Each structure stands twice: as structure tokens, then as C-alpha cells.
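Possible regression after last week's pipeline update?

I re-ran a chain I had predicted before the update to compare outputs. Posting the input and the new output here so someone can diff against the archived version. Not blocking, just want to make sure nothing changed silently.
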Amino acid sequence: MTKSTTHAPADSRILDLAASHVRLYGVERTTVVSIARAAGMSHANVYRYFPSKEALIDAVTEQWLKPVEAGLRDIADAPDPAYDKIERMLAVLHRAYRGKLENDPNIFGLFAAAAAEDRAISRRHRNRLQAELQKVIDEGMANGVFEPGDLRRAVAIVFDVAHRFIHPVSVRMDGATPGPQIDARFERISRLVRRALTSGVR
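New output (post-update):
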């Protein structure tokens, strides 16, 4: 058997158990030993797949971010107007983050902590998001949908204006704010981003 055939099921089982432990006990009380015990293996065997608890926790975070990133890529590659794609991408992030915070707060907390500590998992996610946004903004400038200008500044203004809704630490800080209020604010910000891009970034 190849490595991928023998290891992938164990990887997946360990990740699922780690996520379950974080949900039940929180990240501080989740240990590699307890996960190994639940998996019916030694903790040394867990370390064969994940070299540290932090690596395992980051893999749990990455597991739920992957579908979000795939959704962003699908939107970026769609044949829709660039301004529509930008609004949809921001909406996907807003709903994914807010939904995770409300329905799976301990797992969302892993992501917020990684962002606050500027860990590699957070940087990779931000870089992927930035790449998809840049692709769409560049397309919009080329097609005349957005005013031509500095591409990097245009991407930066999207991040700056939408920060409250697409940065996990800010999303967590708004956790007590009622959903309808947050959604209304997001809609206003989404329109502001569109106006900034169509009128030109100064």
C-alpha cells in the first residue's frame, strides 16, 4: 500500500477526534494523549502525523477553511461581473465566519487565535483570499468595470473597509451583536467597497 492509502484514514480520524475534543473541552483541555486514547493508539503514533499539538490544531482549523476557500475560487472563476463577484466573496466570508462563531464557537476560536498570533495557518488563508480578490479586481480593471488604478491599493482598501466582517478577531469581538444588526452593517460596507472600486481608489 502507498503512504496516502494507509495514512489518509488515520489523519482524518485524528482530525475528527481533535475537533470533537476541542468542541467538548476547549483547546486548553484538549491533549494529544486524550486524542490518542480515543483513537486507540499511542500518542507517539499521533505525532507521526502531526509533529505537535499546535500543528494538529492548525490542521483542524484548515479543515473547515478549505471549503470556504474553494467557494471563493469558484466565485472568482465565475463569468459574472467583477463587482458582483467581489460582493459575493465578501458575503461568503462574512456568513462563513459569523456562522462558525455562532454554531461552532470553539473551532472558530482556533482560527481567531491563529490570526491574533499571526500563525502560518492564518497567513496562508489570508494570502489565498488576497489572491482571489486580486484576480477579480484585476479583471474588473481590465474590463472597465472598475476604475483603473493601483491594484495593490485596491486590494488593501477592500481589506481595510471590510475588516470588521472578514477578520476573525473582529468577528469574534462582534459576537454579542445581534445578527440582523451585523448583516445590515455588512450590506452598507459591501456597497461602500463597490463604490470605492468603481469610482477609483485614491
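Follow-up from reviewer: compared with the archived run. Residues 1-8 have pLDDT under 50 and may be disordered. Marking as no regression found.
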